[in-house]
Design goal:
The protein is mainly α. The chain has one domain. The chain is 78% helix and 5% strand. The chain is built from 2 helices and 2 strands, in the order ααββ. It has a two-stranded antiparallel sheet. Helix 1 packs across helix 2. It is rod-shaped and about 125 Å long.
């Protein structure tokens, strides 16, 4: 068998090396594109989940605000009633009887521009 020419082997080696380098670059681009698509999809899914969570939290805040108004009104009524009881029947150490308290609670309500007032 004849001895291979060194120059020919070098030329073949350079060609193989260039082809291998080109193949590695192409595969790297393909892999990078697929990886980019995977991360982009994951990011879109995360954004969609966050949007749903944000809407849920906004609904929750709106519901708390809706429930707060009647509770604030009830607290205001209770405070006014407590003040009325103190002014009408509290004499320092005197204890208010149950009958007296029921009479105050069942007393007719006074009308105000804001509605009934205890």
């Amino acid at each position: 068998m004849p001895e291979p020419d060194a120059a020919e082997l070098l030329k073949d080696l350079k060609t193989v090396s260039a082809n291998l380098k080109r193949h590695i670059q192409e595969e790297g681009r393909k892999f990078g594109a697929e990886l980019g698509k995977t991360y982009a999809k994951a990011a879109q899914d995360r954004i969609r989940e966050n949007a749903v969570e944000m809407q849920r939290l906004q609904d929750l805040v709106a519901e708390f605000r809706r429930q707060r108004k009647p509770l604030e009104h009830a607290a205001d009524v209770a405070n006014r009633l407590a003040d009325k009881i103190r002014r009408a029947h509290w004499d320092g150490d005197e204890v208010i009887s149950v009958e007296m308290l029921l009479g105050i609670l069942n007393a007719p309500r006074q009308e105000t521009p804001d509605g009934p007032r205890p």
